[in-house]
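Re: that chain you flagged

S.,

Sorry for the slow reply, it's been a week of failed gels. I finally had a moment to sit down with the sequence you sent. For the record, here it is as I used it:
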Amino acid sequence: MKTHCLALAAIVLAASVRADEPKPDRRLDALRVTLTVQEAPFDLVLDRLREVTRLTIAVHPEARDSGPDAPRVSLDLRDIPLRLALKHILRPRGLAVQEVEGALMIVPQRVIDEVTTFKTYDVRDLLTRRPDFAAPEMALKTGNPGQGFG
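Prediction finished late last night. Pasting the structure tokens below so you have them in one place:
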């Protein structure tokens, strides 16, 4: 039976979580973490990070690693920014972190890599009635029959 050793300590630069503190993505660089983990479940490591940092960290359904055969986390990180710690935890699993409405979302890397394309169409002509301007009269001059154009 594998033993799980999980020691997690974080040095939080902010005194408490307040409304005037930086957004979570800025806190990823401000929070420094020391993380020592041996064969710990991925979900347990994320739970400890949530507790210590007091950030909302959600996991995309496709990014969940659970069950007895799920990969384990083994790391020894000392006093590094939370962004870098998350990168060391997530990158080997093909995962990444992104900010979604003030929370941190753990998602598959391919979700971030997908390019969103926006196309803009001018529909003003469908929304308003265009004025119908009177066009000048146009006529062709007719020449005498039998005369050429030369």
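What I noticed first: The chain has one domain: 5-113.

Talk soon,
D.
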